[in-house]
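Supplementary Data S3. Sequence and structure tokens for construct A.
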Amino acid sequence: MKSLLYSSLVYVMLAWLSIGCTKNEPEPACITAEVVGPDPCESGWFILKVLEDDMPNRNAGGNFKGQLESGLVTTDNLPAAYQQEGKIVSLGLELNGEDGPVCVAIHTMYPAVKVKRICKNE
């Protein structure tokens, strides 16, 4: 009888675990950004200026309610087709807490982000 109870308990625990692991992460909202140019700190990183004109989820202070604030950010996974200075692109971005560019001199550091999706380009 105890083995049946333990087996049932293990089955229920595994079912909860599988349900908890199947949830999809929410996609970041599309925001419009302008490619400023390469980041002087490290090659392969690009500076983006987050444009706030079309952001429906801004609070009264002008900052985004999500992860990103208006201003400049840097990324290392911008697709090659969008790496031209002045290019306006609609992206889904999220903060990159894992790594960022390394500066060997005194430069302005910007928050590191990852491009999660390309929404549309202009």
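Construct B, processed identically:
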Amino acid sequence: MGNQKQRAKKPDAIRLLGLILVVAGIVLIGYYLYIHYAGRLHSRLNLDPSPALTVPAEPGEPPQEDAILYPTDRLFVTDERAAYGDGEMTLRIPRLGLDAPVLAGTGPEVLQRGVGLYEYAQLPGEGNRNVSIAGHRDIYGAEFYYLDQLQEGDACYLDYGGREYTYIYQDTAIVEPDDWGPVYCREYGCLTLTSCDPVGTSERRIVVTARRVDSAQKEKEADAAQS
């Protein structure tokens, strides 16, 4: 009788051990999937591109040493952009008579005060950075009211980090308001300016693209260093 009880207990113990092993396996698999997908999500939102990748120089342009090649197939936020503060950069467009500080963000409360830098934009520099800026055309400061009048040969300037970056007008496009394509990086460094279109509506967006051609130390800072 005693032997029969012992034999009955052994299968129960084996089943319990098997159940414990199955649960442990499920926990380990779940933990692995969490780490894997959490890591992928983090890398998409806070991407630090590898400086080992370089952008080929355009014909007639000097090679860009240590240039960063950013992804062109998705939106992302760089640490540099996340740390950007209001007015650290200035946008100048002679054709529009515009000389304005660039604020951080493109929310309604930000654009009431001036032009704003998209969350997914990059800051000026080497490589294929897309400095994307939004502004109003008909309300508040209406900084981009005449945005549609930019034409071939017009220059735009960004003053940032003690340097002046020069961009030359490339093209104008009209897109749907939910089209994020213009904010994506291109194969070259550029400045993207966006606003509502037609004036007085939000039916579509006007997108002006200017290509980066040069950067130089600001003269006033260079003169100060020499004195």
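The domain at 79-226 is CATH 2.40.260.10 (Sortase; Chain: A;). The first helix runs from residue 2 to 45.
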